[in-house]
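Lab notebook, bench 4. Still working through the backlog of constructs that have no structural model yet. Next entry is a single chain of 96 residues. Request: give me the structure tokens for it.
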Amino acid sequence: MCGRAILTPLDAIPSIPRDRGEPVFREPWEARAFALAVSLHGKGVFTWPEWAEALGREIAAAPADDGSHYYEHWLSALEKLVASKGLSNRPGKGFG
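Model written out:
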């Protein structure tokens, strides 16, 4: 073995709210948005660097908060990334 740690998708997102190393979701939609992003990455729709850049843009563009809006930024980034890949029938309009 080469001694390298095995990284998981969760390792690539250090800012995600956690409890004992596991993601924490306050609402069911947060878990669904998280799972959708992980699934789309697993299908090769986007890379983790693409995802990190998209999420970083959303967080940077938002007013400062206490972290309680993290998954709102997550969902917004996911909507825009999916639209930019041509996977949405409403480009730029989100899933709603």
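Notes after review: The chain has a mean pLDDT of 80. Residues 34 and 74 are 8 Å apart (CA to CA). Flag for follow-up if needed.
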